[in-house]
Specification:
Blueprint (H helix, E strand, L loop, with lengths): L19 H10 L13 H16 L13 H11 L3 H13 L9 H7 L9 H13 L8 H9 L19 H27 L1 H23 L2 E5 L12 H16 L6 E4 L3 E9 L5 H4 L8 H10 L13 E10 L4
Antiparallel strand pairs: 1-4, 2-3, 3-4
Amino acid sequence: MKTLPLLLLGLALLGCKEGTQDKKETLKTLPETPPPLAMEPSPTTGKTLMENQCYVCHSATATEENRIGPPMAAIKARYLKDHPERADFVAALWQFVEQPSTEKAKMRGAVKRFGIMPYQAFPKDDITAIASYMYDYKIEEPTWFKTHWEERHGPYEQKGKELQQELRAAQSDTERGMAYAMGTKQELGKNLMGTLQKKGTLAALEFCNIKAFPLTDSMATVHRANIKRVTDKPRNPDNQANATALAHLTKFKEWVAKGDSYEPILEEEEDKVHFYYPIITNTKCLQCHGNPKTDIQKNVLAKINELYPTDQATGYQANEVRGIWSITFPKQGL
């Protein structure tokens, strides 16, 4: 399944106010008959995509200070208000993500606070899977959200079924690896994006230089795993991939370039598992990893050269493999 880069970053289609005219304009732009789904996505797929990708910026547990986007429960509640039917709900979410704009944004408060979502080429199948899961199932919500909603909109009851038992089943090695990778991505992402939003690109660059390794190490300690981000074109030499990781990196690059689907690569030993998964660029990444002449500001490029004299990590476009997660953890029960 293709991953989403920093999925729904600033899905700031949310907020808490909308005028009657805005609502009419939004509804007018929806297709009269929402396009049929090519294939009904599984709840497991939608849940995994949402938690592993969207929660980087839209976590239900983020504090007020660290919040850089509204929680996914707010997105669901707001879209259900206008689109109570499943097909309309899915189509409306896709319509915004396909080409975000302030005109399409439903909740002005969040747009004002977090800004509008930048355009990114998200796969429609991924957005469909996430939106379908959001509609069908109860999703995690902050402790404050129900009161917040009822103060503004009246009684609130989250639509959705109870989670199916299989979604609560013990994790496989693949699921464990994904949880470790995406949990670390969330921790790095919320800190990095918070710094980027509040202090700008230069401060975000310095954050990566000083805090990325300690944060990754702290997550490794929590999970009893060896967690690394490695690449063939490192900014920090400590992120250089070894021969095994380079071979897997090459495979992921080929699959992503062709638009093929892919799964994590697992290699097992007697007592441990090695997990590999790609790190994909998005438009935000290009501020520090894009074309030095067109994407990276001169002062940012100067700071990169100062902090990383041997830097190789530029020249990327959006939706390219920047590196991979290389994670080693004990087998279940060890």
